[in-house]
Design brief:
mainly beta; Immunoglobulin-like
Length: about 130
């Protein structure tokens, strides 16, 4: 039996030595696990008229209606916006209106997202008042 153990050890050492000379590449198909280096710019303006708030978005992100819910593509995506943690609006339009708001203070949040809805971690929040 000892000669079999020795043979196994020799084989394992040979395999380990051979593997040590090769480069190993790991590819992940899980895009959410891959690092994201691109950070788009975001500037948000807001005006009110009566009970409507109008948000204007400026960004260098390529906004794409056609690819919302599609595969991630660096530098492309869409906007998520909502008022007071209400229903989220997903759009590629740079002008967004929130009509019929009640009088009082409100908060609008605008964030940039990949086509697959993962965030670019770029967002702005603004507080405003409807008289």
């Amino acid at each position: 039996m000892p000669w079999k153990t020795g043979l196994i050890l020799i084989l394992l050492c040979s395999i380990t030595a051979a593997c040590g000379q090769n480069e190993v590449y790991v590819y992940s198909n899980d895009q959410s696990a891959q690092s994201q280096s691109y950070k788009p710019t975001l500037d948000v303006g807001l005006t009110t008229s009566g009970s409507t708030a109008t948000v204007t978005v400026k960004t260098n992100l390529t906004l794409s209606k056609e690819h919302i819910d599609g595969a991630r593509k660096e530098g492309e995506g869409h906007i998520h916006a909502y008022v007071d943690d209400g229903d989220k609006l997903m759009t590629a339009d740079t002008t967004i209106q929130f009509p019929n708001l009640k009088p009082g203070k409100h908060v609008v949040k605008v964030s940039l997202h990949n086509n697959d809805h993962t965030p670019y971690d770029v967002s702005k929040s603004m507080t405003f008042e409807i008289k």
